[in-house]
Structures are given as C-alpha cells and as structure tokens.
Design brief:
Number of helices: 19
Radius of gyration: 26 Å
Order of helices and strands: HHHHHHHHHHHHHHHHHHH
Oligomer: single chain
Helix content: 55-70%
C-alpha cells in the first residue's frame, strides 16, 4: 500500500470521480439505472473499507478521506449498485456496534478522541447509506439503527458534542426515510431530543436538535401533537436564554412554522405566545457596520417570515375551504404586512427574505381575500414583489409571481363585484385589520422581552 499521504489523495480523487460519473449520466431520472462506475463499484467500495482499517489510517487524515470517498460513492450510486449499498450499510452498522462496545475500555484522552472521530465518521456514513436505501429495506433495520443511536447518545452524554450532533443528524435521516413509521420510536427518543435542545454549551448539538424537531414535524404531521407542549416549552426557554448561541435562534423561529403546519388548528394553544415572540424578534436591530450582524438579522427575519407562513398555512388548512381558525390571526395581519414593508425598505435585505416575504404575502391574500387588498396595494409591497419577479433565483421568482397573480385575481374579482359607486369610493374602504400598533423598527427593552436575540456569539 502507498504511504498514507498518497493514499489520502487517491481517496479524494475517488470522491471527485464519483460525483463526476454521476453527473455524466444522461438519465432524466433522479437515480440512473447504471453508470460508468457500476462495473467497478463493489471493488472500489471494498478497497475503501479496507483502507479505513489500515494500521496507519490515523496518519494524513487517511481514515477520514476513505470514509468521505465511501460516502460520495454511496451518495452518487446508480440503481444497479444497490446490493453493494445494502451490504455497505450492514458493514457500517457492525462497525458502529463494535466501536460502542469499546467505550468501556477507553482509558486515555488520545483513545477517546480516536473513538469519537470514528463514531462521527461511521454516523455520517450510515446517513449516506440510509438516504440511498429503499424505505421497505430501511424499516427492516430501523430498530437496530435507533438502538445504536440511543446507546451512542447515552455514552457520549455531556462528553462529546460532535458525536451527539452526528447522532441527531442520523436520526433526522431516518425520520425522513421512515415518515410516520418513526412514531414508534418517539417515546424512547423524546428524552434525548430534550437533552439536545437543552445543550446550550455545545450549540451545534442544540442546532441539530432544533433541525430535528422540524424533520419530526414534517414526518409525523398531526401525530406529533402529544409531544408539542414539552418541545414548545424548551424552544421558548432557549429563545429567552442569553447563553444560547445566537445562530440557534432564527432556526427556532422557523421551527414554530413547522410545528404549526404539522398540528394545524391545535397550534391555537401556542398562538398568542408565539405571535408575541415573533413581534419582538421582528423588531431586532443590529450594528449595520458589522456584515456578520447584517447576515444574522436577515436570518432572524427569514425565521420570522417562515414562522408566520407556517402559522397561516396551518390555521388555514389545506382543503379547498378556508378553516375559520385563521381568523384568529386577523388582529396581527396589518403588523405582519408592516414587517414585510420594513424588510423591503432595508437595502441590506437578502434574496431569501424576498422569497419568504413574497410567499407570505401570497398566503395572506389567499387566507383573507378582499379585505387584505388595501394593505398589499402599497407601492412598497408592489416594488418588493417586482424585485422578487426579477430575481435570478427560481424559488424567489416563482413565489413572487404566484403572489402577484393571487393579488390580481382578487382585485379583478373584487372589481367585478363592486358597483361603480363603490369603486369611486374605494379610497374610503374600511379594512377589518387594525392598524399595526408599532412598526417593527424600535429597540425592544430587555425587561419587556421574552426573547433574547443577542445570544452568545
């Protein structure tokens, strides 16, 4: 075998080769039936697995490079490589099981670091394999995977944030693949999700746990409702805690939207506290001479917009008729539109802000109909949507175009059903939405706020 430095470079070459080979397929399907690496795929995978076990694999990042190459191959595999992917999944699980059994024998900090690195690499490899597995095959190994992950979270509790983060991300992948079938693990997994959300010292773990809440909500939908009280309590505590890293907070706001979408009308129980929290978050101001803080402010606003969107869609329902629960938002609609206008007037707003804001305008228009027209006919809103329609990003352009069409559709319906006299008096149209009590531009005093948006840097 070549020396570790050379072998590591060969592994990186295989990573690039796997991606290029996959991109070169002419198949229109997401996963091609075959590709140019199919005939050698099993041999390459076998050699990479052998490389990770070399006695000198700890040198020149060789072990890490070999596992990375393995992940790229699995991620960029064709359908005719599936049997090898299945075998690789079993090998990775067996290795993870062996590493967990070594935990009791760890004596030195050097051994501990090596074990932690190996667990992280195996967790990431397992994620790559699970993403490629067919749902029916994943269900057969899901019990074993969850048992191992829970054991891993147990033994690394309070000791290795990196491993816990990887373990939570592996659960996220399993949730995506299993969908509603993940429900059988919720009771056993709930304490570990709570531990992750409470891990303020290692913010990457907390961030992974918040992301996982979103995954679970999308997968379980209304079935997640029994767990929402505890989850919401932890999320609100994190928002109010100044020791929680600031990067976690925009994600928490966004997850409120995921929860609202999942449980729909049940979100009424949390509506007032969440709307109050979002109003406080939307009033955040930062030092505009600091580019990092400008980015953070845009993330915070994006989190607020995503939360409002989830709440509107969740309360409106996904049927043809609009659920009456959405009327609970009526007193807040004028403020939400003012918030979007405030973002529009800020020259530092991001394209993502435009995408989320446009989508939210469209959702509000479909939920509240004619009554909202005077609020969205302002020049600021129209310019904001025009910026979205001209965006180079497909998502932004699509959402802004859709929102514009929804407004036009309403206006034409409103115009045709309104008498000439009423049209002449349109300027005196009385909106049922109360005027926003305060525009989102003032500082929030710490004493008034349940949200500490500074967080630790």
């Amino acid at each position: 075998a070549a020396e570790p430095r050379v072998s590591a470079n060969v592994c990186w070459a295989f990573s690039s080769l796997a991606e290029a080979a996959y991109d070169a397929t002419e198949s229109q399907e997401e996963e091609p039936n075959t590709y140019c690496l199919s005939s050698t795929f099993e041999v390459i995978v076998q050699k990479l697995l052998e490389t990770t076990d070399r006695p000198d694999a700890g040198n020149s990042n060789l072990r890490s490079a070999a596992y990375e190459a393995l992940m790229e191959l699995v991620k960029n595999s064709a359908k005719d490589c599936y049997v090898t992917v299945q075998k690789t999944t079993v090998v990775v699980m067996d290795r993870l099981q062996r590493v967990l059994q070594l935990e009791a024998a760890v004596q030195t900090s050097s051994d501990r670091a090596q074990i932690n690195d190996l667990q992280s690499l195996l967790c990431a490899s397992l994620q790559a394999c699970l993403r490629r597995m067919r749902p029916e095959d994943t269900r057969q190994i899901a019990d074993r995977v969850m048992t191992m992950i829970i054991e891993m979270l147990n033994v690394t509790k309070g000791r290795s944030g990196g491993v816990q983060e990887d373990a939570l991300m592996a659960v996220g992948t399993l949730v995506e693949v299993l969908g509603t079938d993940f429900m059988k693990y919720m009771e056993a997994f709930k304490p570990y999700l709570a531990l992750g959300l409470r891990n303020h010292a290692e913010y990457q773990v907390c961030l992974a746990a918040v992301g996982l809440v979103g995954d679970i909500c999308r997968a379980l939908s209304t079935q997640v409702a029994p767990y929402c009280n505890d989850i919401m309590q932890l999320l609100l505590e994190n928002l109010a805690n100044d020791s929680v890293h600031r990067s976690v907070k925009p994600q928490i706001l966004s997850v409120f939207g995921d929860i609202a979408l999942a449980i729909g009308p049940e979100f009424k129980n949390y509506l007032e506290v969440v709307l109050s929290t979002l109003q406080q978050a939307s009033q955040a101001q930062v030092d505009k001479s600091d580019y990092d803080m400008i980015d953070y402010l845009n993330e915070l606003r994006e989190g607020c917009l995503e939360a409002y969107t989830g709440i509107v869609q969740g309360l409106k329902g996904d049927g043809n008729s609009i659920a009456p629960d959405v009327a609970m938002l009526q007193p807040h609609v004028a403020y939400i539109i003012k918030f979007i206008e405030h973002i529009a007037k800020d020259e530092d707003h991001s394209d993502s802000n435009v995408a989320c804001g446009s989508g939210l305008i469209g959702d509000l228009v479909t939920a509240f109909g004619n009554d909202i027209i005077p609020l969205v006919e302002t020049q600021t809103v129209q310019d904001f949507l025009q910026e979205g329609r001209r965006s180079k990003t497909n998502k932004t352009k699509t959402l802004a175009t859709w929102a514009t069409k929804e407004i036009r559709k309403l206006k034409s319906a409103w115009g045709s059903s309104t008498s000439t006299e009423a049209q002449l008096c349109r300027g005196s149209h009385v909106s049922p939405f109360p005027v926003a009590s305060s525009a989102p531009n003032g500082h929030v005093n710490a004493g008034e706020s349940a949200v500490d948006l500074s967080g630790s840097a």
